[in-house]
Specification:
Helix content is about 55%, strand content about 5%. The chain has a two-stranded antiparallel ribbon with strand order 1-2. Helix 1 crosses helix 4, helix 2 packs across helix 3 and helix 2 packs antiparallel against helix 4. By secondary structure, the chain is mostly helical.
C-alpha cells in the first residue's frame, strides 16, 4: 500500500491514510442515527484494528452490552493488517453514505 499522495494524469490520488482520516471525520460529523447499528459496530471494530491493532483488552462484563458488542467486533478483526482495516473502513463508509 502507498501512504503518500501522488499525481496521476493531472489528478491527485489521496493516500490510504488521508482517505481513512477523511472517512473518520465524515462519520464523526454525520447523524449516526441514519445508519444501521450493525454497520456502526463493524466500523468500530475496523477503526480500532486500524488505529490500535489486535484487541489488547479484556472483554467487558455483563451488563455492558454496548461494550461487549464493540469488543466482539474488534476482536473479530484480529490478524487484519492496519492498512487493510483502513481500506475496509473507508469502503464501508462509502457504502453507508451511498445508502442514505
Amino acid at each position: 500500500k502507498q501512504w503518500y499522495q501522488r499525481r496521476v494524469r493531472g489528478h491527485f490520488i489521496m493516500s490510504l491514510l488521508s482517505q481513512f482520516e477523511l472517512s473518520c471525520k465524515r462519520v464523526e460529523q454525520s447523524d449516526i442515527t441514519k445508519f444501521a447499528v450493525t454497520d456502526l459496530v463493524e466500523l468500530y471494530g475496523l477503526y480500532k484494528q486500524a488505529t490500535v491493532g489486535d484487541c489488547n483488552t479484556e472483554r467487558p462484563k455483563y451488563p455492558n452490552f454496548k461494550g461487549m458488542t464493540r469488543w466482539d467486533s474488534w476482536k473479530g478483526k484480529a490478524g487484519i493488517e492496519k492498512d487493510t482495516a483502513m481500506e475496509q473502513y473507508t469502503n464501508l463508509v462509502e457504502t453507508m453514505f451511498k445508502a442514505i
